[in-house]
Amino acid sequence: MSANLRQVAERAGVSVRTVSNVVSGFALVAPETRERVQRVIDELGYRPNAAARHLRGGRSGLVALVLPEISSPYFGELAGHLADQAEAYAWTLLVQQTGGDAARERELLDGVRAQTVDGLIMSPWGLSPADLTRRPDSAPLVLLGEQDAGGLLDHVALDNETAAADLTHHLIKTGRRHIAAIGLQPHLVNGTAARRAAGYRRALAESGLPAREIPVDRLHRADGAAAMTHLLDNGAEVDAVFCFSDQLALGALHVALDRGLRVPGDLAVAGFDDIEDGRYANPALTTIAPDKPAIARAALTCLADRLADRNAHPRRVVVPHRLEVRASTGRR
Amino acid sequence: MSANLRQVAERAGVSVRTVSNVVSGFALVAPETRERVQRVIDELGYRPNAAARHLRGGRSGLVALVLPEISSPYFGELAGHLADQAEAYAWTLLVQQTGGDAARERELLDGVRAQTVDGLIMSPWGLSPADLTRRPDSAPLVLLGEQDAGGLLDHVALDNETAAADLTHHLIKTGRRHIAAIGLQPHLVNGTAARRAAGYRRALAESGLPAREIPVDRLHRADGAAAMTHLLDNGAEVDAVFCFSDQLALGALHVALDRGLRVPGDLAVAGFDDIEDGRYANPALTTIAPDKPAIARAALTCLADRLADRNAHPRRVVVPHRLEVRASTGRR
DNA sequence: CTGAAAGCGCTAACAC
DNA sequence: GTGTTAGCGCTTTCAG
């Protein structure tokens, strides 16, 4: 076991108070005392005990990231930004996967860990806004995505509807007339897909074009592939697909090319999220690029501000996005 | 603030000892007492304080995953398996990124967090085996990858050399004669790339074929793209590239197709890691598929066993892999 | 089966 | 500037 404060104090011939001062660097300590204490600290390899600090001070230095799955590229990239930026707050990120399951989300939100951490950043899929606000007194929660929770919780989102409309307009502008959407998730309360669908429909309506929507179970490549297969097997007249995530789009793209379609010649394919895979796909994937570092920054800022003032008015931060046009939606 | 043991005890008219017994479920408690206490617990929404438990019991229930970057698909998939399986041990995963930097690896290995957690699972890139064994008394460390640390640390690895040789043999068997390797990292002490290079060279030597090796700085798609560009710009005679990661391969593939090469017609492309992107690439990527769930399982088992017996002989677990042949290395 | 109390390592209020 | 000490919430030894 490593040394504790008292042992350092004894060996340096000072009180624990003084050692504590040296370690935390706050209060004034005579230079020579400080040096002597520091020497003993180095000698003994003393490290402050985080559990004791946590118990005493109430801060753990831990922030939980609660999301459907860390292996999804979008969340992986986001987690990377969060972990990097969390350092500026001396926070360490803790990852908890829900699989998008409501019961599991509930469990993580109310469980023991939720008290251990200084805050939670969560991307809810299964829980409704109402569910989210009903939780025991615990660490503050920042929501990622479209779950607004009636303005009762801090919340970082994109303007999903506008983004989807922008992308749909782009497809129309490049000459597409039969644009299918892949990615609705009618079984989820998660509003993200619904917002994107709304933008898609609005853009089509403005041009008098018909909508065609294919629901999916999850947002993996396999689901995009299945949806595309379904579309082609049913002989649908379609010259573009707008997928609500890049992963779906990559699955759809794979099937389309496999079936001998030329992309973008016969079919335009677009996604959403701007994951790195899309940039290197063949052809490269047109997508909506959310400012991911900004999402991370906003989430951490919300948490820090909330910790500083538990009664501040909940914020809704809308992070910018950008339409990223690449080869997959070139002219026919 | 939420209730504590004493408050529950007072309200239930019992001692803290009894409440503690009810909560932990270990010792015997009279059924009716238990029920009464449980009712108060529910009433007050009591949750045990993890910091106090940690301070008292010395276990935090936290395991640190220390890796170059969580946004890399390989590590993302691995982290997903680890997070899932950690639950069986009542462990929560904490993510720390090093960027592959030695100083940062050192810092995380010796820092405060390293004492907070029950154990560390690390994929070292910058630190040498010798560096890794030289650390203050701290939580046990399990190594991922080729860093053997002289048999002094628990260690989960692939048979990288055999895997690379298998893949190279496969390329030779399908008629390739000018097989370049992309992915050496001469600036890193990390032995993984070196082992893969050894397997590649061995296989080529056995067939009397020449080796051609392109070093890379990092293992991102952009590095694979740069290496491929370099190869093509120098007019190298090459009919296959073996990339030491799928990410490199996807970058190389992108450039090759962009330059008008047919894959696999003119050029075969193969990777390593079996990340999901590779399965849906166009053409789908031939690769070495490590058993990732098994890696996660082995790492957690090592940690648990080490915690049970700090003096057990360090283990080296070799996890199986499989050659996954897909379209990108079809016949010319 | 239950109660009293020590103590995990630290911080900070209170002394001097 | 430095020493002394209470107490954060819990588990567990020792009594009963």
What Rg of chain A do the Cα atoms give?
Answer: 25 Å
Shape of chain A: elongated
CATH superfamily of the largest domain in chain A, called what? Response regulator
The strand count of chain A comes to: 12
Helix-strand topology string of chain A: HHHHEHEHHEHEEHEHEHEHEHEHEE
Main sheet of chain A, how many strands, which sense, barrel? 6 strands, parallel
Query: CATH first level of the largest domain in chain A: which class?
Result: Alpha Beta
3D architecture notes:
The structure is a homodimer of 332-residue chains. By secondary structure, the first copy, chain A, is an alpha/beta fold. Chain A folds into two domains: 5-157 and 292-318, Rossmann fold, CATH 3.40.50; 160-290, Response regulator (Rossmann fold, 3-Layer(aba) Sandwich), CATH 3.40.50.2300. Chain A contains 14 helices and twelve strands. Chain A has helices at 5-12, 16-24, 31-44, 50-57, 73-86, 102-110, 113-116, 129-133, 160-173, 192-206, 221-233, 246-258, 276-279, 292-308; strands spanning 62-67, 92-97, 119-122, 141-144, 154-158, 179-184, 212-215, 240-243, 268-270, 287-290, 316-319, 321-324. In chain A, the strands form three sheets. The first copy, chain A, has a six-stranded parallel beta sheet, sandwiched between helices. In chain A, strands 7-6-8-9 form a four-stranded parallel beta sheet, sandwiched between helices. In chain A, β1 (62-67), α5 and β2 (92-97) form a beta-alpha-beta unit. In chain A, α9 runs parallel beside α10 (192-206) and α11 (221-233) packs across α12 (246-258). The longest helix of chain A has 17 residues, at 292-308. Chain A is elongated and about 85 Å long. Chain A starts with a helix and ends in an 8-residue tail after the last strand. Chains A and B meet through α4, α5, β2, α7 and α12 of A and α4, α5, β2, α7 and α12 of B. Chain A binds a DNA duplex (16 and 16 nucleotides) through α2 and α4.
